[in-house]
């Protein structure tokens, strides 16, 4: 891996393991040492309770496709106990997963997108990351009403609203040919970070309006070399406004959502072959 790329990933990791956060992580309400839904007093906490930021998985060099999620869900980390792994004591290289096809198995809410990961991995070097890299703050754990801390954390991590964030530098570092985002919220944040060709007013219709069986829609991004492809969110399923535009043949052994992601991967592979 080129030294510049190595520096980026290790710098982000160092920012995260630092108490209180450093760099773009400084003071983030979702940081392991600040958030209030983890056990113990944040002032004296030294354990991340199995939590770690989700970025830097899959291929790090010669990246063809970067897949972009919104944020890791609660299912992606173990139960919060003192015995669980304290990832602040680990290095980036010890924690990252180089097999991107295993990401849907451990990320909890994106299992239905597994066909996308598996098919693309056979054809491309695939990178996986999240717009907001730390887990959602769960207000039920701390008995208070939502107060916007999750939205603040996602903007701070992405680099929206005056924050420097990670996303722009991260994508420039891995330099993919295609960026695929999963769901409406990652699309909204992506469009606040980058100058993206309009998808139209209706997200669900827009992502299915391309000239492919999966509706795959490619968008240009001003000043960037990569092509952007927004897609549906696997947990919520593919909206009827998307599927009614598609010409996907269903399979008995797959849900409609799994078949959608499989068809999407097939279409991107064909698109790349035609345009390379």
Can you characterise this structure?
With 276 residues, the chain is α/β, with parallel strands linked by helices. The chain contains ten helices and six strands. It has a single domain, classed as Uracil-DNA Glycosylase, subunit E (3-Layer(aba) Sandwich), CATH 3.40.470. The protein has a six-stranded mixed beta sheet with strand order 1-3-2-4-6-5, with helices on both faces. 32% of the residues lie in helices and 9% in strands. β5 and β6 form a beta hairpin. This is Uracil DNA glycosylase superfamily protein. InterPro entries: Uracil-DNA_glycosylase-like_sf (IPR036895).
- CATH domain topology: Uracil-DNA Glycosylase, subunit E
In CATH terms, the superfamily is: Uracil-DNA glycosylase-like domain
Helix count from the secondary structure assignment:
10
**Principal-axis shape:** globular
Oligomer: single chain
Under the CATH scheme, the architecture is 3-Layer(aba) Sandwich
Count all strands and give the number. Answer: 6
Strand residue percentage: 5-15%
Instruction: State the name of the first-level CATH class.
Output: Alpha Beta
Strand order of the largest sheet: 1-3-2-4-6-5
Distance between the termini: 25 Å
What is the typical, i.e. mean, pLDDT? Answer: 89
* SSE topology string: HEEHHHEHHEHHEEHH
